[in-house]
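Notes, p. 3: input format for complexes.
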Amino acid sequence: MRLDLTAFQPLVPELTRLRRDIHAHPELGFAEHRTAGLIAQALGNLGLDVTTGIGGTGVVGVLRRGGSARSIGLRADMDALPFHEETGLPYASTQPGTFHGCGHDGHVAMLLGAAQHLVNDDSFGGTVNFIFQPAEEGQAGARAMIEDGLFDRFPCDRVFALHNWPDLPAGSIRTRAGPIMASADRFEIVISGQGGHAAMPHQTPDAILAACDLVQQLNTIVARRIPATEAAVLSVTQIHGGHAHNVIPGTVTIMGTVRTFNPAVQDRIEASIRAMASGVALSSETTITVAYDRYYPATINDADAAAAALRACAAVCDDVAIAPDPAFTSEDFAFMLQARPGAYLWLGQKTPDKAAALHHPRYDFNDDVLTLGIGCFVALIHQELAPGA
Ligand SMILES: [Zn+2]
Ligand SMILES: [Zn+2]
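Output follows (389 residues plus zinc ion):
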C-alpha cells in the first residue's frame, strides 16, 4: 500500500527549524549535550518513555502499542565533525571548527518526525525504540551504547538506520544484503633512527629513507598479497619527520588507513605491514614500531532485513533498488548490526543545490528529503510491526 507523504507535511516546518537549529549549534562526539537535551524534550513532549545518558549522551525514546512482544530499533546519530563549515548559510555553524558535515542533524530530524507521526498512528502493534546515538564519527558511540546495555534495556528484534547519500538523487533508496560499508583500521608507524648531521649520513640511520622505502612497500600489499576477488584499500595519509635542510631527523611517523569487508583480509594486511616494517628496520638499522587499531568493523546487513527494508520503502518512493556495490567509507552502526539483525540504508539527497559530498566544507543536509526519510521509517514500522502479524 502506498504511503501518502503529504501526511508528514505538517511536521516539516518545525522539523526544518529544529534541524537548522541543531546545524547552527553542532556538537562533537560524546559532547552532544544540547542536542540530546532537545531530543529528550521532544520525545518527552510526545509522551514517550525517555532514557538519557546511555553510552554517554545517548537517548532512547520508547513507544509501545498493544500487547505484542515484537520490537524494532530505529537509529539516528547526533554528532558533528571537527572541521570548518564554508556553506555561508544563514544557519551555518556558530561553533568555529565544528560542523554538521555529515548530515546527522537531518538524521535526528527525520527520526523525531517518525516518532511524532507514529505517536498518533495505530496501524502497528509492538514496541518502537527510537535510538539517538552519540559519536558516530570515529569514536564508536554505538558500541558505547551497547556496552551500556542498550539492547538488554531496550530489546530490538531488528534495527534499522538511514544515512543521507549525496551520490544518489534525492528521493532514491538503496541498500543491499551483506556488506554495505567497509571496516576501518588506522595504523601509526614510528621509525626511530638516531638523528645527526646531513653531511655525515654514514653516522646515523636515515629514518627518512626508511620511511620512503616502507611507504613504497605498503602500497604493494593490496596488489600483491590480497586475492583479486577481495576488495581492500590501503592509503598512507601522513608522513611527519624533519625540521631542517641539514639535519637527518631522529624519527619519522607514518599514518594511514585500511578499508575492507573481510576480517581475514584485515589480518593479512596487518601482518604484512608488520613484516615489512621489520624488514625495513633490519635493512635500515632503524627501530620501527607499528600500532594497528581496528576501530570500526564492516557494516554487514542481514539479507532478510535488507530485503524487508526495500519492500517497505517501495511504499514511499519509486526509486528503490539494491545497491550494486558497498562503499569504502565506514559506519559504527556496524556494531549494532553485530548485536542484532537489521539493515543500513542510503537515502539519496542530491539536487543541483545540494550536491556537495559528505564531509565536504560546503555540504548541507537536504531538507527536501525529510518527508521521505520519515516515510521510510514509518513504512518500516507498519510492515515490521503489522498488527496481528
Ligand atoms: Zn560522517
Ligand atoms: Zn554520517
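Residues 102, 137, 358-359 surround zinc ion (ligand 1) (CB under 6 Å).
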